[in-house]
Amino acid sequence: MDMSLFIAAAIAVILIGATLLLRRRYMAPKLDTDEKSASDGSALESVITRDIHNIPRQHLDENALKVVHRLNDDGHEAYLVGGCIRDILLGLRPKDFDVATSATPEQAEELFRRSRLIGRRFKLVHVRFGREVIEVATFRAGHDTEDRNEDGEDGRQAASGLILRDNVYGTLREDALRRDFTINALYYSAQDHSVHDFAGGYRDIGHKVIRMIGDPASRYREDPVRMLRAVRFAAKLNFDIEPATAAPIHQLAPLLRAIPAARMFDEVLKLLQSGHGVAAYRQMQTYGLFEQLFPQVQDAIDRGPAAGMPVEELIIKALRNTDRRLEQGKSVTPAFLFAALLWYPMQLRLNSLMKEGRMPPLPALHEAANEVIAAQIRHIAIPRRFSTPLREIWELQLRLPKRQGGRAERLMEHPRFRAAYDLLLLRESSGEDLGGLSQWWTDYQGANGDDRETLQEDLAPSAAKPRKRRRKPRSRPHDA
After folding, report:
1. Which SS3 state, helix, strand or coil, does residue 459 take?
2. Are 138 and 169 spatial neighbours (Cβ–Cβ below 8 Å)?
3. Rg of the chain taking only CA atoms, in angstroms
4. Alpha helices of 114-224 — where are they, by DSSP H?
5. What are the CB-based long-range contacts (under 8 Å, 24+) for 75-78?
6. CA 377/CA 371 separation, integer angstroms
7. Where residue 30 falls among pLDDT bands split at 50, 70, 90?
8. Rounded Cα distance, 381 and 264, in Å
9. CA atoms within 13 A on the CB side of 478
10. 421: closest CA among 281, 321, 276, 350?
11. More confident residue, 154 or 432
């Protein structure tokens, strides 16, 4: 009997020990462990099983899974990675699905008929399924590792720490720890439906925290755009930026000026035209990032109260309007966004040119527009397909007050009329005194023929009277 009790007790101890071991392996690690692994670069792997993470199979992209399975079948490791897993765990619909694999870009390209190798700084493979593109990236290692090729060109950094080339291939663990934030370092296995977490990202999602993997200052120097990504994720997900991750941003914000203007254009659209523009703008102001992207606009914001210009009110209303349109499934254009953001910097320069008395209003507007846009594209490239309609929207602001006769009908036929009218509405609702001009245009658009004539007649008292032509005096013959 005593031996039976001893055996039963031993079995109980073994079961308890096994349970604790399984919990340690399959449950997300505790927060203090997460913080350590994220900050010092150590890698304590946590495998979260399907019964814990509860990611529905139907929420995963079929084409992305096909890519993963094809890579697995060829003997490579492959996982769905990053934002798609983060968003599904948060109950959001991912915008796209990315794949990380042990296969080199050249090996991955050979496996897919409709694929294309892209990039030099960071080689990727794009696999196309109709209009959908699945991005496939090879596991990367950190830049403190030794070069793994003969010429040393796979990974390069500038003296400042900026990454110039990022093609040092590594393992799954190394790939996880070189990613920016813990919440983006989650890997979904299609083979056993588990999620692999090396940095505590699963727990940080639960705590709604944006946390940098590794030393934040060093990681921002490697790629200053990570500062923008931090505020973008905080705005999009309604997360808090962890204090150590936030601390260096103010000091390092000027590093953004070294980023190519074309890349900054894409980043600004992600920030301000993804449905959370107001929150992203406020985050950028909190951390001193906005003035690095839009120095002229920040100067106008600072000067606005003294100049009687509701600069920030217009910006907030324009971004709120953009967020609302995206929520309603309507289209938005960068031309309108930049027209609203740069309106008051252009106005300040226009007023200065008018005071100098060198040119009439319309040529002065064209000159002001040229100068403001030229200054802006040194920081954020604005493609011509957007800068041209931007100028037209501004020009119409000068023409919309001139409504007499047939001008109103002709203005409504202009291809940029609707965008110009929307900017007019925002200007007046922001506090700019336009004498009810936006309401007149609202009424005019909704009126029939007779009512439009009435609206035109109401303008008569304020319309300028036609000037009488002066008769040339008759020449009389001289007296003989």
Report:
1. coil
2. yes
3. 30
4. 172-178, 201-207, 216-222
5. 76/101, 76/102, 76/103, 76/107, 76/108, 77/101, 77/102, 77/139, 77/172, 78/102, 78/103, 78/190
6. 10
7. very low
8. 7
9. 1
10. 321
11. 432
- Higher pLDDT: 383 or 166? It is 383
Secondary structure of residue 75 in the 3-state scheme: coil
Distance between CA 354 and CA 368 in Å, rounded?
10
Q: How far apart are the two ends of the chain, measured CA to CA in Å?
A: 159
Measured distance CA(424)–CA(438) in Å, rounded: 6
Active site (catalytic) residues: 96, 98, 180
The proportion of the chain whose per-residue pLDDT surpasses 90, expressed as a percent, equals: 71
Distance CA 53, CA 201 (A): 12
Q: Tokens in use for 396? A: 């119409």
Cβ contact 44:198 at 8 Å = yes
Tokens 């997360």, residue?
A: 239
Phi, psi of 87 (to 5 degrees): -65, -40
Long-range contacts, stretch 229-232, CB < 8 angstroms, 24+ apart: 229/180, 229/181, 230/181, 231/271, 231/280, 231/283, 231/284, 231/286, 231/287, 231/289, 232/270, 232/271, 232/274, 232/280, 232/283
DSSP characters over 296-338: HHHHHHHHHHHHT--HHHHHHHHHHHHHHHHHTT----HHHHH
Q: Nearest to residue 403, comparing CAs of 437, 430, 377?
A: 437
Whether the CB-CB separation of 231 and 287 falls below 8 Å is answered with yes
- Other C-beta atoms within 10 Å of 35: how many? 20
Q: Which tokens hold the place of 128?
A: 């196309």
Number of neighbouring beta carbons within 10 Å of residue 142:
16
Give me the residue label for tokens 């609202």. Answer: 442
